[in-house]
C-alpha cells in the first residue's frame, strides 16, 4: 500500500477553500469563491503553499516598495504563502507543515497539522485544530487536484 508521503508528492492546484464553523453556522470563502492556489510536495521532504483571492487589485505602481499602507493591507489579507519541511503520519492520516518561511510572520517556525483525505482523485486537507476567524471558531477545508 502506498504511503501518504508518496501519494502527496507533486503539484496540486486549489479547487476550493472554505471555513466551516464548528457550531454549524454559515460556511464562508476567506479567499473568495474562486481562489487560486498551488501546493507542492517534493521528494526531499519540503513543501510550498501559495493561495490568493482572484479579486486582488493591482498596486498603483509596478514596484512594491513605493506603495501605500492600504495596498499592503490588501496584499496581506488576500494572499497566503509559506514553505518548509513536511512529514506524514500514516496512522493518524496527517501531514505536518513546518513553516520555515511565511508571509504571515507569526507562523514562521510553527508546525501545523492537516487531516488528509484522498477521494475521487482529489486531495482534501483540513486544519486539525479549530481556530478563531472573524469571531467564529472554524476549520479550514481545502480541496486540491493534481496538476
From TrEMBL:
Residue ranges of every copy of the Lipocalin-like domain listed in the record: 9-147
Protein name: Lipocalin-like domain-containing protein
Amino acid at each position: 500500500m502506498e504511503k501518504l508521503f508518496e501519494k502527496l508528492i507533486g503539484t496540486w492546484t486549489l479547487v476550493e477553500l472554505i471555513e466551516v464553523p464548528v457550531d454549524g453556522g454559515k460556511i464562508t470563502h476567506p479567499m473568495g469563491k474562486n481562489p487560486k492556489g498551488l501546493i507542492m510536495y517534493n521528494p526531499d521532504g519540503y513543501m510550498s503553499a501559495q493561495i490568493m483571492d482572484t479579486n486582488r487589485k493591482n498596486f498603483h505602481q509596478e514596484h512594491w516598495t513605493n506603495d501605500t499602507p492600504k495596498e499592503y493591507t490588501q496584499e496581506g489579507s488576500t494572499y497566503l504563502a509559506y514553505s518548509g519541511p513536511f512529514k506524514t503520519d500514516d496512522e493518524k492520516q496527517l501531514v505536518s507543515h513546518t513553516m520555515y518561511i511565511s508571509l504571515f510572520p507569526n507562523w514562521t517556525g510553527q508546525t501545523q497539522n492537516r487531516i488528509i483525505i484522498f477521494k475521487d482523485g482529489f486531495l482534501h486537507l483540513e486544519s486539525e485544530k479549530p481556530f478563531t476567524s472573524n469571531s467564529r471558531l472554524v476549520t479550514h477545508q481545502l480541496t486540491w487536484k493534481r496538476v
